[in-house]
Structure formats: C-alpha cells, structure tokens
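MODEL INPUT / OUTPUT PAIR
PAIR INDEX: 1
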Amino acid sequence: MPDPRINHIELDEATILWRNADIEQERRIAIFDLIEENSFKPQRPWDAGHQGPYRLRLSVHDGRLSLEVADAEGQQLETLVLGLGRFRRSIRDYFAICDSYYQAIRKATAQEIETIDMARRGVHSAAAQMLLERLEGKIETDFATARRLFTLICVLHIRG
C-alpha cells in the first residue's frame, strides 16, 4: 500500500558546525512537524516498486544540496542533488531576519515582533515556493513540507 511520506529525517551533522539554542529549537520543531505531517513522493519509479514511506538524509557539499532517499529499512533508493545558488540570497535573508526576530522577542513590543515575524514568514514562503519549483519532476511534495525542508536546509548552512 503506497505511503508517500517521510517517516525519518536525518541531517548531516558534519555539515553543521555550530548552532545556538534558538536554531536548535527551530531544527527540532521542523523535524517533528515534518515527521508528523508531510507529503513526499519521488517521481522516479524503482525496480522494487517502492512507494513509501521514506527515510531522508540531507547534506550540503560544494554548494549543492544532497537528498538521499531510502526506503523505510534504510536501503538507498536514490540521491538527488540540487544546486543551491538560487537559494543563497533567501538563506542569507532568512538568517538575518531570524536574528532580528530572536532579538526582538527578548525586548521589542508585540507590534514590532509581529512585523518582523510577517517578514520572516514571507521570506520563508518565497524560499519554499522556489524549492517546490526545483523539486518539480523529481519529488512531488506540498507547500508545508517544502517550508519545513527549507528550514532544515538553512540549519545545514550555519557556519558560526
């Protein structure tokens, strides 16, 4: 019976050099939410006819995102590699606005926090839409899953 979703996700910890408590919380929430509810259907047929659930491992090497897709038992099915050049500005903007947001929640007014949060959501949504476009024809997914994946892509880019 087809089950087109991710049931396990792993980030390449060697890629992540540093993260603070706020970023660690974002990572935990994104992974939890992603596992709880997602849509993930690779478009390439496999000889074994596997249709989910999937294990996913994300890593970044040489400016490229690697999505290692495996079956529920961990048997490698395929590795998708996406260039991240188009995401650089979105990642940089997302980090900058998140930094502003984390500072604001400690000392700003509710109105200021809401304004920054709206901008943060806007950047996040635009990047998720771009990810959906980059995955087109490779992996069928929904907007909410793309948003959570973009959060995890950002976590992989933290350099300290």
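PAIR INDEX: 2
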Amino acid sequence: MRHIVLSGISQHILKELEHDKVKTIEIRSPHNFLSILETDVGDVIFLTQTSLEDVRPGTTGVIAKIREKQISMQRVVQRTEVFYEEAEVQLARLQLEIKGYARVRRAECCALGEATFVDADEMLFFEGR
C-alpha cells in the first residue's frame, strides 16, 4: 500500500506510540512538514526512525492513522543584553493511532519541496524475514 513517509522519528516516540496506541506528536523538520501538508485526517502514514536519505526497500517502521491534524505558527524569541531576535516557526501536530508494522517494498524519492511516498507491506508478527 502507498503511504506518505515521516522519517527520522525518534525511537522513543515510536515506542510510546506502540505502547499507548494513540499519541500526539509535533513535526517541525521541513521535509516531514512538507509531507504532512499532503495528508488529511483519516490517512494512514508510515513512520520510521531511519533518515530520509536511507529509506529504501527493507526499511521497517510503523503505520498509523491520522486522527487529528493541526497546523500552527509558533513565535520564538531569543534575547540577550546585546540583541533581540524574533522568528516564527510553522509546525504540525498530529494525533496518531497505531495500525501495525510495515516494511518498505519500494521508495519513491521526491524532489525538493515535495512529500516522500513508499509502497509498504504490513508485517505480521509471525513473519520471519
């Protein structure tokens, strides 16, 4: 099945999602943020701790359904006696519900500014590959 990829997700976050079954995460990295913009509530996505450049056939990860999606702007202020700097950062919040585990069959690399997709097969716990 074809899924949008969120890559470089911390192992800690993936374990919490596995344990709690539902988890809200924040996405700030540009490549994952661009992928999020292509999703809707109800879509099933592929999450992996592997970096985007290393996602290839055989990469394993978690598949999860998007229960809620929120895009917002956050103001970041850094101030010292010498300077004052203010920036705005866009971020996405996703509430995810784990559906299972998957292994990448085929990765579709994307151009700069586009979402990354993979064809991934759901793994059953008794598969011994």
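PAIR 2 NOTE: Residues 2-123 form a domain with the Archaeosine Trna-guanine Transglycosylase; Chain: A, domain 4 fold (CATH 2.30.130.40).
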